[in-house]
């Protein structure tokens, strides 16, 4: 199979979808790997490392997109829509619930679009989203802590609160909505920094597991709106981490809810890639990461892991590579037919939406995958 690795073009996206070691293994399996010039540079991999591994460096995005299977990190942007075509296999983060325009194009162009975030194992885990969520959760706390400073590098001063407090001064209050991979990782770092941490989680089994994991180190409760209001009144750093796989993020917050938070407090909406958990959330970029609404600094970066591309690329490709190899070895249709976790992750095929939550979020018909 011919596998294409285009350079990422999203704002300051420095990750790459395949590392040279992965390219070597695919070439040894008998496949051809086309890597766009410079695609690995942001993650510390030179073109020479890819050619040494047996991949071919191609000069343009069009050359990489000409492959049968294109593997990326982030969803295709409008500049890339020209490369989409019937029969193309696309394996990447898609987050279509937040991007109806891309969904339309994938349907019109009859692309076989497989979303990393919807690869789901029989026990409900999301193995390809998990590593990036662990990175994003840790970063959300790190970045949130620095935005809380009065001098935070933006035009909007934070509340001026130190995460861990100091002798005779209370630490910051951190509220995390959703206790999955993002929430748990964000909590670990916040606890490590000495903050007082609360997690509100919607699944009873997850509440029990989180309590077991954190013990006395943080307070974990079942999500209830009243509970959230009480926590918001004293919240310095709020982290949005709720997810229903494939669907639009649950809408948990309005501007009047956020007004309960002290002025200059910080809201990191990590769930922005699925549309965000607040009516006040809209995607931001590394050029302008922050805006203020209801007196609260909002930071809604849809590609947080790109801030640490060396770590993120290693973490992502370690999980995606076995699936890439499977798609290439068995052929895309056979791989999807034989592996339930891959089958669940097909978002569009032959002009149909084949993922129920994506269809529901778009208000369009769902067509069970027919092979
Ligand atoms: N911005 C970024 O760069 C970035 C990076 C990675 C992940 N994400 C996003 O972060 C979000 C969370 O991802 P994750 O891997 O932690 O998902 P996850 O499935 O591991 O955890 C989500 C948790 O939210 C809980 N939940 C669902 N509805 C809820 C509600 N109404 N109230 C409270 N909890 C609720 C679920 O029970 C689950 O435990 C996703 O939208 C994901 O795409 C963003």
UniProtKB/TrEMBL annotation:
Q: Outline the extent of the Alanine dehydrogenase/pyridine nucleotide transhydrogenase N-terminal domain.
A: 4-136
The catalytic activity, as recorded, is:
L-alanine + NAD(+) + H2O = pyruvate + NH4(+) + NADH + H(+)
The residues the record assigns to binding substrate are 15, 74
Q: Please give the Pfam families that the UniProt record associates with this protein.
A: AlaDh_PNT_C, AlaDh_PNT_N
Alphabetized UniProt keyword annotations: NAD, Nucleotide-binding, Oxidoreductase
Q: Which GO terms describe its biological process?
A: L-alanine catabolic process
Q: Has the keyword Secreted been applied to this entry?
A: no
The coiled-coil segments of this chain are none
Q: Single GO cellular component annotation?
A: plasma membrane
Q: Which top class of enzyme applies to this chain?
A: oxidoreductase
Q: Which domain of life is it from?
A: Bacteria
Entry protein name: Alanine dehydrogenase
| Location of the active site | 95 (proton donor/acceptor), 273 (proton donor/acceptor)
Domain Alanine dehydrogenase/pyridine nucleotide transhydrogenase NAD(H)-binding: start-end pairs? 148-300
Enzyme Commission code(s) on record: 1.4.1.1
The protein's job, in short, is:
May play a role in cell wall synthesis as L-alanine is an important constituent of the peptidoglycan layer.
Single GO molecular-function term? alanine dehydrogenase activity
Q: Which family does it belong to?
A: Belongs to the AlaDH/PNT family.
**Quick one: which pathway?**
Amino-acid degradation; L-alanine degradation via dehydrogenase pathway; NH(3) and pyruvate from L-alanine: step 1/1
């Amino acid at each position: 199979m011919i596998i294409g690795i285009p350079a990422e073009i999203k704002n300051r996206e420095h990750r790459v979808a395949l590392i040279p070691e992965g390219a070597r293994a695919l070439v040894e399996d008998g496949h051809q790997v086309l890597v766009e010039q410079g695609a690995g540079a942001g993650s510390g991999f030179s073109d020479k490392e890819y050619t040494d591994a047996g991949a071919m460096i191609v000069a343009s995005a069009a050359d990489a997109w000409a492959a049968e299977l294109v593997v990326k990190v982030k969803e295709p942007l409008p500049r890339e829509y020209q490369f989409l075509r019937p029969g193309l296999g696309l394996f990447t983060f898609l987050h279509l619930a937040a991007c109806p325009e891309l969904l339309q194009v994938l349907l019109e162009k009859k692309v076989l679009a497989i979303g990393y975030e919807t690869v789901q194992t029989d026990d409900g885990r999301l193995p390809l989203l998990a590593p990036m969520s662990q990175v994003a959760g840790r970063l959300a706390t790190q970045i949130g802590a620095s935005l809380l400073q009065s001098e935070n590098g933006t035009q909007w001063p934070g509340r001026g609160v130190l995460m861990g407090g100091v002798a005779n001064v209370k630490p910051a209050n951190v509220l995390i909505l959703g206790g999955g991979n993002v929430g748990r990782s964000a909590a670990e770092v916040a606890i490590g920094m000495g903050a007082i941490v609360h997690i509100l989680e919607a699944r009873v089994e997850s509440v029990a597991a989180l309590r077991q994991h954190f013990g006395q180190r943080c307070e974990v409760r079942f999500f209830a709106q009243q509970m959230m209001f009480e926590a918001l009144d004293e919240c310095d750093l709020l982290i949005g981490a709720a997810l229903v796989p494939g669907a639009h993020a649950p809408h948990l917050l309005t501007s009047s809810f956020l007004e309960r938070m002290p002025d200059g407090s910080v809201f990191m909406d990590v769930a922005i890639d699925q549309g965000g958990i607040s009516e006040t959330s809209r995607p931001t970029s590394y050029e302008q990461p922050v805006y203020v609404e209801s007196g609260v600094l909002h930071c809604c970066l849809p590609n947080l892991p790109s801030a640490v591309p060396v770590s993120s690329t290693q973490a992502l490709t370690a999980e995606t590579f076995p699936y890439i190899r499977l798609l290439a070895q068995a052929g895309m249709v056979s791989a999807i037919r034989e592996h339930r976790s891959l089958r669940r992750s097909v978002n569009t095929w032959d002009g149909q939406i084949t993922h129920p939550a994506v269809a529901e979020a778009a208000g369009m018909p769902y067509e069970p995958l027919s092979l």
